[in-house]
Amino acid sequence: MTRPQSLRPELIDAALTSARSLGTPLWLYEAEPIRQRARQLAAFDCVRYAQKANSNTHILRLLRSMGVMVDAVSLGEIERALRAGYVPGTDAHEIVFTADIIDEATLARVVELGIPVNCGSPDMLRQVGRARRGHPIWLRLNPGFGHGHNRKTNTGGPSSKHGIWHEELEDSLRLADEYGLSVVGLHMHIGSGVDYGHLHRVCDSMLDAVRRANRPLHAISAGGGLSVPYRAGEPEIDIAEYYAAWNKTRLAAEQITGGPLRLELEPGRYLVANAGLLIAEIRAVKKVADKHFVLLDAGFNELARPIIYGSHHEICFVTNTGAPVAGEPRPIAVAGPLCEAGDVFTQHDGGFVEFRDLPLPQVGDFAILRDAGAYGATMSSNYNTRPLAPEVMLDEGVLSVIRKRQSIEQLLDLEADGGVV
Ligand code: LLP
């Protein structure tokens, strides 16, 4: 799938139909591009979706129907996977739990259901071992370097809290043996939005780890991190080349372990980012000095990526008939309703407010923020006591509400008299 330069008219129609029916802000996803992405990864033995990117149970169900397995990082994500029909505890390992820590309630649930645990710390290994001898585990390794689209999405190297430090591999395996744990495989995830300069280095580190592990294994995982285009004209990554490098690593690793190894991939963003939009209504257009601010009814409590990472999302304005807003482009910053200066969708990490050349819309027009399918709804909050926005799925021309808008009553209900502690 290549990222279309402009929004297709039927997608704009779907956005406006949903906005009229449900109000704004709202999330709109398209099913077919998600399926296409899953097909593009079919060469891997197992594609394990990192559901933190978008954990709506309807999306999980769709991916399961494509043969995609799932990763969970919390008890809530385990329950979502179960709700979506994933079957735990079979040899297929449909669900794996990956984290750096595990709390007691989650530990009890993974043991009860036989869900393999991808351990990111020796303490986590000990806790799983104490809970159940023979439990299947993975080791998530920090190979000593990492990369991300932003320093906050780099999950490797000496400044990262993630994974078991590579020099601790042998000690961790000894610990696993001491507790009688069954080691399924080795895993590395060096960051999100990775530039592929590191690809061969990660593959070499994996091979080195397999050699040092010096034991039969069932699988290796390349982690996630595959980047997607966010800007017009940005290229897609070359999956064939990525697969070739990892497959070569797998074949070399099989020579070492002497048995077949399942090659897993753990993408989040790649499967869903380009398939989602955030739709908001324009509620004010202000002149500030010689430039304009366009204020939307969506803020960083909906889409947090710009304020956290300075991430770029293309924004287009359409009138309430669906026509693109016309006019001479002029410097415009697009911002939200929150009482906080950082609530600006057009910003650079460090540089802050970015004025983009866009045609000036009017109050009542709509703003469509693109490529918001990953780390959009899942990172939303109730800041400023704003309820979570609804989610809609477009599949074969049919629009379905896949999450209702949260109500203010639901929010306030949590604060009803909770009794004395
Ligand atoms: N596996 C592990 C262990 C992870 O921690 C992550 C993401 C993934 C896989 C999936 O990474 P992906 O393929 O989606 O890049 N909120 C940030 C991204 C943080 C990702 C955290 N971990 C963003 O909006 O860019």
From TrEMBL:
Instruction: Family membership, please give it.
Output: Belongs to the Orn/Lys/Arg decarboxylase class-II family. LysA subfamily.
Q: Which keywords has UniProt assigned to this entry?
A: Amino-acid biosynthesis, Decarboxylase, Lyase, Lysine biosynthesis, Pyridoxal phosphate
| Function comment | Specifically catalyzes the decarboxylation of meso-diaminopimelate (meso-DAP) to L-lysine.
Enzyme type, top EC level: lyase
Q: Which residues bind substrate?
A: R269, R305, Y309, E340, Y375
Catalytic activity annotation: meso-2,6-diaminopimelate + H(+) = L-lysine + CO2
Q: Which domain of life is it from?
A: Bacteria
Q: Orn/DAP/Arg decarboxylase 2 N-terminal domain: which residues? A: 46-273
**Assembly and interactions?**
Homodimer.
The EC number(s) this enzyme carries: 4.1.1.20
This chain is encoded by the gene named lysA_1
Per the UniProt record, the lineage of the source organism begins with:
Bacteria, Pseudomonadati, Pseudomonadota, Alphaproteobacteria, Hyphomicrobiales
List cofactor names only: pyridoxal 5'-phosphate
Which of this chain's residues are annotated to bind pyridoxal 5'-phosphate? G225, E266, P267, G268, R269, Y375
What protein is this chain from?
Diaminopimelate decarboxylase
Q: In which pathway does it act?
A: Amino-acid biosynthesis; L-lysine biosynthesis via DAP pathway; L-lysine from DL-2,6-diaminopimelate: step 1/1
Residues that bear N6-(pyridoxal phosphate)lysine: K52
The UniProt entry, under SUPFAM superfamilies, shows: Alanine racemase C-terminal domain-like (SSF50621), PLP-binding barrel (SSF51419)
Q: Which Pfam families match?
A: Orn_Arg_deC_N
